[in-house]
């Protein structure tokens, strides 16, 4: 009751006062500390002669390195595409009503996720030891349409693609399955109630919505695969990493040459990240009320608004 | 009633015509009795629904315990009842979204989801079921609009892809688009044609969903609690659209909790409880003079006294 019976003090008038936001001194201290740290790292990178930036620059665009880079990109592209196609099929199998398809798909993922990629790679390359010849014919009979020596069929490239693809398929199957499961059941019902055919239902209604859940993980996988291709060095396949190794074994400039490879991986990953941003934005259509501006649009808007204020300010 | 109905060419065997009236009545006495449209020309009737002793269980729970119901073409039938009474399940069996465990449903004398082969009812292939569903529009409680497609694309999707070659309803892309805009205009949303569902209010989304259900020019429209997910002030804009449809000659079957609306538009009100139809009749019969005690006690709980003058 005291709140009601206390009108003794007249209400003060603050209308002429200026508002001052709260200060955050510790935020400034933190900023300064981190800035010093960043500067120290940059300084050491620039001034420590043992980084041998000159050597890095010399080899960065050398022909052998670039051709190694092309091989890396080729491996990534081929096993990435094949891996996701196979992964899509495995995901559909896993979601099917047939117990056999479900268990085959599950077993595939189980095996390829539980064995080291390095072992898989060596196994594929040495397939000729296990099976001398590979043939196509009618099972359980002597009929053969086609027969070939395993060693001629499984080159280093084939072993690399096979190993990376199958491994990638096992992981991407789970990612795609997760994406499909994330789509509301009501979407399928609505499509079925409208009589939309099954294939169209998957491609037009379910997959575009599943993509929102699939893409971030899928790009994680692709970026992992770019660097994962370096494991192919065990097959002496001259992709980027193996090429660099060959060079530094000859010149003994180990760290600068590893830096060359690293920088290239950073470049590829950066380009992929830009793709990821725009592809995710494409599939965000309708999921957000308004799409956020792209960095380019933000920059344009910044300059447009500032140009306007500058033009007005002299007056 | 629409007078310009073209007789649909049956693509699958109709029970009465394929097996012959004698065979049909021998095997399915109930079918012949409860499907008066079948012996005559099916072209004459549009949207007659006959549900015969339909049973359905989910696990150990029997949600439909032998439900029979006959809905005349062009009529407005409102199904009411407490939640869990099987209303929605019954509605979903009409377009075979829910498979029945027993009994059968015919539309204009034609079995839904099954065909007669010998003395058995064989479930149709998915393609044929999808084709049957193009005659049955459905509006869901949660709208189920496709969120990644604009309002216009939502309405135009089914007419572009769901109809078989030779279907008289097939149109060119431009015609489908024009018709979709027309339908959006009919639900007063022509100016929002390019909006995505999430940019629309709940009431607007449900109106787009109604336009989408109308896009295939269905004989029958099913409404599964179309206003239950809406804010109170948005309910009427959706009910007004349904009210307008009630005069269009399309058969409407509506599950709803809006008793005032049911009294307004229904030709027949069906009261369901515990998987059975307790009673059905005109709104007058059901709301003011219910015969069954169960009906009386339900309405005494859901209709506010002030409203029930």
Automatic annotation (TrEMBL), chain A:
<protein>
    <submittedName>
        <fullName>Amino acid ABC transporter permease</fullName>
    </submittedName>
</protein>
<dbReference type="GO" id="GO:0006865">
    <property type="term" value="P:amino acid transport"/>
</dbReference>
<dbReference type="InterPro" id="IPR010065">
    <property type="entry name" value="AA_ABC_transptr_permease_3TM"/>
</dbReference>
<dbReference type="InterPro" id="IPR000515">
    <property type="entry name" value="MetI-like"/>
</dbReference>
<dbReference type="Pfam" id="PF00528">
    <property type="entry name" value="BPD_transp_1"/>
</dbReference>
<comment type="similarity">
    <text>Belongs to the binding-protein-dependent transport system permease family.</text>
</comment>
<feature type="transmembrane region" description="Helical">
    <location>
        <begin position="100"/>
        <end position="125"/>
    </location>
</feature>
<dbReference type="GO" id="GO:0022857">
    <property type="term" value="F:transmembrane transporter activity"/>
</dbReference>
<feature type="transmembrane region" description="Helical">
    <location>
        <begin position="75"/>
        <end position="93"/>
    </location>
</feature>
<dbReference type="InterPro" id="IPR035906">
    <property type="entry name" value="MetI-like_sf"/>
</dbReference>
<feature type="domain" description="ABC transmembrane type-1">
    <location>
        <begin position="69"/>
        <end position="276"/>
    </location>
</feature>
<feature type="transmembrane region" description="Helical">
    <location>
        <begin position="28"/>
        <end position="46"/>
    </location>
</feature>
<keyword id="KW-0813">Transport</keyword>
<feature type="transmembrane region" description="Helical">
    <location>
        <begin position="230"/>
        <end position="248"/>
    </location>
</feature>
<dbReference type="GO" id="GO:0043190">
    <property type="term" value="C:ATP-binding cassette (ABC) transporter complex"/>
</dbReference>
<feature type="transmembrane region" description="Helical">
    <location>
        <begin position="254"/>
        <end position="279"/>
    </location>
</feature>
<keyword id="KW-0812">Transmembrane</keyword>
<dbReference type="InterPro" id="IPR043429">
    <property type="entry name" value="ArtM/GltK/GlnP/TcyL/YhdX-like"/>
</dbReference>
<keyword id="KW-0029">Amino-acid transport</keyword>
<keyword id="KW-1003">Cell membrane</keyword>
<keyword id="KW-1133">Transmembrane helix</keyword>
<keyword id="KW-0472">Membrane</keyword>
């Amino acid at each position: 009751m005291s709140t009601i019976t206390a009108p003794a003090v007249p209400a003060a008038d603050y209308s002429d006062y200026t508002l001052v936001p709260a200060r955050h001194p510790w935020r400034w201290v933190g900023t300064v500390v981190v800035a010093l740290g960043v500067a120290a790292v940059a300084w050491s990178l620039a001034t420590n002669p043992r980084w041998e930036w000159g050597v890095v620059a010399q080899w960065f665009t050398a022909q052998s390195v670039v051709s190694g880079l092309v091989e890396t990109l080729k491996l990534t592209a081929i096993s990435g595409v094949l891996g996701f196609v196979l992964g899509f099929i495995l995901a559909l199998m896993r979601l099917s009503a047939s117990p056999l398809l479900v268990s085959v798909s599950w077993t595939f993922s189980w095996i390829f996720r539980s064995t080291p990629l390095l072992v898989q790679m060596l196994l594929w390359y040495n397939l000729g030891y296990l099976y001398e010849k590979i043939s196509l014919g009618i099972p359980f009979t002597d009929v053969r349409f086609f027969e070939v020596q395993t060693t001629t069929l499984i080159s280093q490239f084939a072993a690399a693609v096979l190993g990376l693809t199958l491994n990638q398929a096992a992981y991407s199957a789970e990612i795609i399955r997760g994406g499909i499961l994330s789509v509301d059941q009501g979407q399928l019902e609505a499509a079925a109630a409208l009589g939309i055919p099954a294939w169209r239902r998957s491609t037009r209604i379910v997959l575009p919505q599943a993509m929102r859940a699939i893409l971030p993980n899928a790009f994680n996988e692709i970026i992992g695969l770019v660097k994962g291709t370096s494991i192919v060095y065990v097959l002496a396949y001259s992709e980027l990493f193996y090429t660099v190794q060959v060079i530094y074994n000859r010149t003994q400039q180990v760290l600068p040459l590893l830096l060359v490879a690293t920088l290239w991986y950073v470049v590829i990953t950066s380009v992929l990240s830009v793709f990821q941003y725009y592809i995710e934005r494409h599939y965000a259509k309708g999921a957000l009320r308004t799409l956020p501006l792209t960095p380019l649009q933000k920059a344009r808007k910044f300059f447009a608004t500032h140009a306007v204020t500058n033009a007005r300010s002299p007056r | 009633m629409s007078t310009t109905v073209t007789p649909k060419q049956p693509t699958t065997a109709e029970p009465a015509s394929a097996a012959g009236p004698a065979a049909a009545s021998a095997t399915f006495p109930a079918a012949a009795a409860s499907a008066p449209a079948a012996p005559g020309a099916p072209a004459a009737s549009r949207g007659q629904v006959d549900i015969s002793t339909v049973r359905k269980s989910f696990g150990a729970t029997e949600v439909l315990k032998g439900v029979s119901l006959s809905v005349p073409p062009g009529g407005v039938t409102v199904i009411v009842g407490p939640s869990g009474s099987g209303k929605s399940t019954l509605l979903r069996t009409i377009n075979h979204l829910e498979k029945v465990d027993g009994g059968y449903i015919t539309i204009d004398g034609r079995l839904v989801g099954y065909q007669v082969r010998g003395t058995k009812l064989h479930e149709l292939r998915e393609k044929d079921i999808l084709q049957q569903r193009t005659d049955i529009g459905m509006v869901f409680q949660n709208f189920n609009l496709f969120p990644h497609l604009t309002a216009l694309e939502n309405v135009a999707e089914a007419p572009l892809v769901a109809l078989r070659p030779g279907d008289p309803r097939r149109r060119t892309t431009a015609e489908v688009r024009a018709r979709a805009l027309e339908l959006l205009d009919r639900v007063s949303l022509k100016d929002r044609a390019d909006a995505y569902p999430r940019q629309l209010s709940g009431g607007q989304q449900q109106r787009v969903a109604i336009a989408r259900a109308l896009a295939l020019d269905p004989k029958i429209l099913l409404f599964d609690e179309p206003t239950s997910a809406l804010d109170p002030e948005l309910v009427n804009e959706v009910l007004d659209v349904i009210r307008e449809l009630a005069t269009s000659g399309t058969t409407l079957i509506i599950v709803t909790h809006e008793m005032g609306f049911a009294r307004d538009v229904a030709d027949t009100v069906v009261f369901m409880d515990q998987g059975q139809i307790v009673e059905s009749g005109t709104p007058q019969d059901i709301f003011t003079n219910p015969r069954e005690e169960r009906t009386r006690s339900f309405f005494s709980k859901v209709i506010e006294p002030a409203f029930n003058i």
